[in-house]
Specification:
It holds the Pfam family Aminotran_3. It contains 15 helices and 15 strands. The protein is an alpha/beta fold and 449 residues long. The mean pLDDT is 96. It binds pyridoxal-5'-phosphate (PLP).
């Protein structure tokens, strides 16, 4: 099919995720046809540097021959295996053991699903199941944050705190899910320094615990660094202090590492290595397979496993998917992890990430740029109408999209989120590519008045 036929068929038949019906009808999608490493090509052979890494996921870059071979070989060998209790397959067993080794502390148990949303959904059900098994049936409330994104299933979207994503046409679980302030220092109440802002957030959490009662709160769900809520690195010590409050109040700490795991910020998992937090549950997906195949995983502690697996012999965790522990996806994940290890990509992210942060900070001089923030290979530029007051552009102007379109003309893909431009490049990005990203994004912003 030629491009115009593809565009017509796209609009006629494929309802994409998060479709805004008005703009979707107006614009033709960028139809991608090929990828190699950090580069993408569209159907007219124009090439782009993919500074978004697909959707925070193509950590090792695309088009790797050994990934293709591993996947093809596993398809030949065993393309599918029933994952229910009396059957198993080698790639899933080996991957579960590998994840247990990489995960912090006593997180040694793995439940496989199909992506990030189902990993979060599983965590939600696991949290309730665990509290019920302990006889704590009233411990059902969940604390999360405004600005947090946790996925698109019913439970995951209920935990999500991004107001723009929670349109009123849907109903969400709202009586037992509570959203506290977003830990975004750039938007902190005026006059507070970072330490005061951190104290304010911790105090707010404590007040919520006092208000609901610790015996009613099952878990806290949080991304270590908020991703699609605007790449928000919380104030120093915030994650650790909230985790300590959770411990002190018998509240499970669920770290949603769907974006931050597998090297994005230079660690297998950011919770412990970057923030000194030992979660009870970690959800992950995306970089687990670098996007080669869909896979999610909910990792949890031996302590939780012991509670849910002992006692009533009729009890069982009634949750699972046809594709839990899919052998081909698990084989792809194992090869992906092997490549990250062999090419020392975590260390590379630490080194090149420091340069990326430093170079992006130069964009602050541009009249539109209010904030440049993030960590290593997870970065964001916030565009504002007024730098002094931090006033944002009206959403209707869709300034982030306007800028990303200008970047795209220059061969650079950056992700627009309302007035933000977000970047999460493959971990293989080098210094020259950093320079390219900063130059082209800077030009795209400069072109915007
Ligand atoms: N959790 C976080 C932190 C995410 O960023 C996402 C997706 O972007 C999800 C969960 C949902 O993952 P998926 O889209 O694979 O279902």
């Amino acid at each position: 099919m030629n491009d115009s036929k593809l565009w017509q068929a796209d609009k006629r038949h494929w309802m994409h995720p998060w479709t805004h019906f008005d703009s979707f009808q107006e614009e033709g999608s960028l139809i991608l046809s090929r990828a190699r490493g950090n580069r993408l090509w569209d159907s007219s052979s124009k090439s782009y540097f993919d500074a978004v890494g697909g959707l925070w996921c193509t950590n090792i870059g695309l088009g790797r021959e050994e990934m293709a071979e591993t996947i093809a070989e596993q398809v030949r060998q065993l393309a599918y295996a029933n994952p229910f209790v009396d059957m198993a397959n080698e790639p899933a067993i080996t991957l579960a053991a590998k994840l247990a080794k990489l995960a912090p502390g006593d997180i040694n148990r793995v439940f496989f699903s199909c992506g990030g949303s189902t990993a979060v959904d599983t965590a939600f059900r696991l949290v309730h199941f665990y509290q019920n098994c302990r006889g704590k049936r009233d411990k059902k409330h969940i604390i999360a944050r405004r600005g947090g994104y946790h996925g698109s299933t019913y439970a995951a979207m209920s935990i999500t705190g991004k107001s723009g994503d929670k349109i009123p046409e849907f109903d969400y679980i709202s009586d037992t899910i509570h959203h506290l302030s977003c830990p975004n220092f750039y938007r902190a109440p005026q006059g507070m320094d970072e330490q005061q802002f951190c104290d304010f957030l911790v105090e707010e959490f404590q007040q919520k615990v006092d208000e609901l009662g610790a015996d009613k709160i099952a878990a806290f769900f949080a991304e270590p660094i908020l991703g699609s809520g605007g790449v928000i690195v919380p104030p120093a010590d915030y994650n650790r202090r909230i985790w300590e409050l959770c411990r002190a109040n018998d509240i499970l700490y669920v770290a949603d590492e769907v974006v931050t795991a597998f090297g994005r910020v230079g660690h297998w998992f950011a919770s412990e290595d970057m923030f000194g937090v030992q979660p009870d549950i970690i959800t992950c997906a995306k970089g687990l397979t670098s996007g080669y195949l869909p896979l999610g995983a909910t990792l949890f502690s031996d302590r939780i496993y012991e509670v849910i697996s002992t006692g009533d012999s009729d009890r069982y965790f009634a949750s699972g998917y046809t594709y839990s522990g899919h052998p081909v996806a698990c084989a792809a994940a194992l090869k992906n992890i092997e490549i990250i290890e062999r090419e020392n990509l975590l260390q590379r992210v630490v080194e090149v990430g420091a340069y990326f942060e430093e170079r992006l900070q130069t964009l602050r001089d541009l009249p539109l740029v209010g904030d440049v923030r993030g960590k290593r290979f997870m970065m964001c530029v916030e565009n504002v109408r007024n730098k002094a007051t931090r006033e944002v552009f009206p959403d209707s102007l869709n300034i982030g999209k306007w800028i990303s379109d200008r970047a795209e003309e220059r061969g650079l893909i950056v992700r627009p989120i309302v007035h933000l431009n977000v970047m999460s490049p493959p971990l293989t990005m080098d210094h020259e590519e950093v320079d390219f990203v900063v130059e082209k994004l800077g030009q795209a912003i400069e072109q915007t008045h």
